[in-house]
Amino acid sequence: MNTHSSFSTNKIIFLVVFICAALMTSLFVFHMSHKSNPVLSADDGLIFPAARDVKPFELQAANSKPFTQADLQHHWTLMLFGFTHCQKICPTSLGMLNRVYLKLHRTYPNLQVVMVSLDPERDTPEIVDHYAHSFHPDFIGVTGKTPELRKLQSQLGIFSAREPASGTANYHLQHTASILLMNPQGKWAGVFKYGLNPEQFAQALTASMQSLSQQQNG
After folding, report:
1. Which of 88, 101, 109, 127 has its CB surrounded by the most CB atoms within 10 Å?
2. Considering only CA atoms, which of 112, 164, 122, 165 is closest in space to residue 146?
3. Cα separations (Å) of 26 from 21, 22, 37, 73?
4. Is the predicted pLDDT of residue 14 greater than 60, yes or no?
5. Which residue segments constitute the domains of the chain, with CATH numbers given?
6. Does pTM top 0.70 for this prediction?
């Protein structure tokens, strides 16, 4: 009886995860089909026709420093969501971003990379910041209380769900793997797909920032 109940619960959880993932994919496809700025190919990602406001939020960086929407201003920001126990997506993305950062930082000295941990139960601000620094000392790691994380996720279209696990400390998180681009006005300007190599990402990012800067100046 307990086994059957556990099995049913797991089925419900995975069904919810599947539906949420399908909705996120549909939303992305919708945005792709309605874009008017062909800066990027569909294989790279999407730059929005108009940058989107980011509503106020408050997360925590190391040493209890708040990380808010104001910290996105005056920077080009690449933001990704994940967790330090991530086995593939997060280290792959951060390793790729390290190579891109080394290549582009001289041209774009105000470029910043921010990882937001969706796992505040295991990732303290100090832990996620140390994790981000392990890929590059300039990278920033932040997290926050679950309600604040959910508020930020909802406005940025970031999905996450905990997978069932036998041990409470051994769970895994499914999460959106995209990398978001914020402009120097602190607005959400676009999204890059997961899986680009450093050369592809650097080209896509450079083209995006140049196009967005020209739009702003024009």
Report:
1. 101
2. 122
3. 9, 6, 20, 30
4. no
5. 2-217 (3.40.30.10)
6. yes
